[in-house]
Design brief:
The complex is a heterodimer. By secondary structure, chain A is an alpha/beta fold. Chain A has 13 helices and 20 strands. In chain A, strands 3, 4, 7, 8, 9, 10 and 20 form a 7-stranded mixed beta sheet that branches. A 6-stranded antiparallel beta sheet of chain A has the order 6-13-14-15-12-18, with helices on both faces. In chain B, about 45% of the residues are buried. Classes of the chains: A alpha/beta, B mainly alpha.
Amino acid sequence: MKNSPLLGKFRKPDGEPHMLGAMQRLTGSMRKYSEQDEVDYVVVGVGAGGGVLTQRLSRAGFRVVAFDAGPFWDTERDWVSDESGSHKLYWTQKRVTGGTHPLAFGSNNSGQGVGGSTVHWASFTPRLHPSDFQIHTLDGVGVDWPISYSDLKPYYELMELELPVSGPAYFPWGDPHGYAFGPHPMGGVGNALIKGCTNLGIEVSAGGPVAILEGSRADRPHCIYRGFCIQGCKVGAKASTLITHVPDAIRSGAEIRANCMVARVNLGRDGRVRGVTYFDEEGREHTQKARAVVISGYSIETPRLLLNSACPGFENGLANSSDCVGRYLMAQAGNVVLGRFGEPVRMYKAPPAHALTEAFYETDPKRDFARGFAVQTVGPLPIAFAKQMMVAKGAWGWGLRRVMMDYNHWAGFGFLGEILPHAENRVQLADETDGFGLPVAKVTFGLGDNDKKLTDFGVKKTMEIMSAAGAEEVVQEQRYAHLVGAARMGKDPRTSVVDQFGRTHDIPNLFICDGSIMPTQGSANPGLTIMALAARIADYLITQGADIFTSNERSDRISAIRRELAPPDTWGHGMPRIEAPVQPVSS
Amino acid sequence: MEAQRTDDDPRPIDPNTGKPIGPLAQPGYYQGYRTLDQRKFWDAKTREVVLERVHKVPQFRYFDDRQAALLTAICERVLPQADRDADHKIPIAPQIDKRLYEDRHDGYRYEEMPPDREAFPMALRAIDDMAQAHYGRGFLELRMSEQDELLRSLHDGKPIAGHDVWERMPPHRFWLLLVQDCAEAYYAHPWAWDEIGFGGPAYPRAYMRLERGEPEPWEKEEKRYEWAPPPGSQSGRYEPVGGQSEHHATPGQGGTH
């Protein structure tokens, strides 16, 4: 074909190098360690947490092997602009789900392959609010974090530049701030959210925060508004650690060992871990020696790995003297509210994530529950929409055909409600095993009284906004979104698994760096927080240096934030220098 | 001329004239819109995956002939296509067979459910047994309205005839599994995209018109027509899926945020 687009190609990418998005090439060779090498760090899982951590540790000069159970994607060859063809992006291995309110996994929340869930996140990237770090103190519910918002704030700011995050110049909620990269234009769903909120006098924000480029930057092109964000962004406009941090990790000497499933973490007689045992693509068993191990498998696979690593001295699971491994698993109430409009909306265009309100985020004493929720845009493609209508309207047969013929008239809002941590919401091992003979995860989930009240109120409010936007019919589907917890951090080793730096209380050279360490979840999408925590954990590990490998002493010493560890592309691309936080204008 | 219409005519009707609609090459409100016409503007990998879906209908390998016939008849009720002509029917049962043959699943299984590979054969047997118990004929021999009535009882969570399978597998869970498998196969097909006016793959060319539901130059404006489900069918109404008590909540399946 003679004519060709600015980005990507219409023809086959024969003979092209490994592509990470339409323009970025993975160049140079990757370092390979042998099994005889004792590396500094093994990282298990290259998602939001593991991707950022691996990049940081490598850039600081540590020898790192990072494992992922799935492939190292070439986005041109492996990904498609197609819903049904994108299942391989999700963790589709066996899991058993139950409890009074069982969670769905797979495409709902679980990634597989380098980049992890950031490959298929919609990439809303709000920060947590300062109140999220102390909900027990403020509201008498849940638990406080061992750190405060101010500990994480510089890392939020840095991650917002590294991904980077596009958003409005002024974001009014939590700790008000602005975004250095400009907001996205509105699609039909964002317009509906703005209109509905405005008609009800609810403050609303548009154009982000979302980790999608609104303009080209270095070797990443601008968004083309094709709507396939959660099928993997072939464009490379949406951030994932696959394209933002892994390339720099490899240039800095990390080995990414893809298609390798870590089976257990091995404990030495001295009470320190010595590396991992894993299965390669052909199912052969290997070991990799390491001076320290970081697990970044997210809220299901991280506790599963610890439980599967039970050994003498840790019969109930590695690092589980607290019996908290697998417990306090959280998902956010993620009901989808759908409204039918008289005029077409065509919600498949524009990123699903492009407008939101956090006006109901904080505890309101006038309500009969603690904490709150956010309302965000979503943009389900036809198959997801059909499944939503199957539940929301009970549609099947001709009823399903009819509502689907009206697909272009519907808009979707995602409710995002904070569900509190409960000890009985947990990950355990099932009786059945996966293809490697490893017991799979069995997940139990249910709602508490506050969770139910919050969800009822919030879904009703979200439906009101949809009606106020002009929708003639409004329905909703019960759902849960995101995962966090199941290996939570805390000050007390009796009630938490890791400390504020992801270090397990039980084993001095075993760390966890992913969403599972979050003690509570707020009503913000967790991705940015996981990355900010990972950068902070990296700074701690680098500050401690070789002490991590040799000493059982626990130090809380951490350096000032190491901005120099950001991928070099972060700087010098027309980004304005914002020195001081944006302050709200007093009226 | 049009044959005498009966309640067994599976085609939808024009509510004003009562006459059946179709069979058509392209039902829906976007006549003349063809996503496949845009395939040269898709990236090569996407084109390969979508064209294979259109041109290579998988053979039945997991189900035997009797099961395949039964599943095909059930899919025709869950996602009826009587308004589509023979050349434009979207294969559904073969895609379910392919998924089960390849043992692909969504990455989780409800604890009260057997694995998908067992659930389908169990349910097919139960549905046929229920037809015998209630109507004295197998499912394939039932009238359209009877097939709908039987399936609707699963949708409602109240099977029309008792069966030991439904003691080992909640009917509403199987129902949702079945409907979502049918939806996955149908709405993955470019002919279904034409029917609903979905833009389809858009990389690397991009969309340009984001607001007010405006079509791209290669998309079509909507041209609506009135239609009603065939009078003998029971699937045109919207009623909640049964079995959704507090302790059997039915969360959504697809990821959107």
